[in-house]
């Protein structure tokens, strides 16, 4: 993974990238130019990142994930909804798609539970 960063300084600790919840290649549609490009994705601690050349782009908190073959007419497609956007991805196989959906779904549940735990703790300390 270090080669993806090149000489660019990354503000996060390198240890963050060890033992991700899920990582692998996916096709992602561009935000402005709607072409599909292959990117390396990393899911860790409720955040999903993708790499293109030496740029690391974090995705904001995921709200939901679901299959999207019918929506975009592509095999192995899925959609992630965030607070700001709906993004479409294409995995290499149906198994890869299901593995990503399961991993991101678990991260969403885990993240929402930790938010609830933090909210409850805040109320009891006030």
UniProtKB/TrEMBL annotation:
PROSITE patterns: PH_DOMAIN (PS50003)
SUPFAM superfamilies assigned: PH domain-like
Pfam family, one: PH
InterPro entries: PH-like_dom_sf (IPR011993), PH_domain (IPR001849), PI-Interact_SigTrans_Reg (IPR051707)
CDD domains documented for this protein: PH_AtPH1
Domain called PH: residue spans: 19-109
Domain of life: Eukaryota
Name by which UniProt lists this protein: Pleckstrin homology domain-containing protein 1
Lineage: Eukaryota, Viridiplantae, Chlorophyta, core chlorophytes, Chlorophyceae
């Amino acid at each position: 993974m270090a080669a993806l960063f090149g000489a660019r300084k990354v503000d996060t600790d390198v240890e963050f990238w060890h033992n991700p919840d899920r990582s692998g290649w996916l096709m992602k549609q561009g935000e402005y130019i709607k072409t599909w490009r292959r990117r390396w994705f990393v899911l860790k601690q409720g955040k999903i990142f993708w790499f293109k050349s030496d740029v690391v782009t974090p995705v904001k908190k995921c709200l939901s994930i679901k299959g999207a073959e019918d929506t975009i007419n592509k095999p192995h497609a899925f959609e992630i909804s965030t607070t700001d956007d709906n993004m479409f991805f294409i995995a290499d196989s149906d198994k890869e798609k299901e593995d990503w959906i399961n991993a991101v779904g678990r991260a969403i549940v885990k993240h929402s539970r930790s938010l609830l735990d933090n909210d409850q703790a805040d109320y009891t300390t006030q």
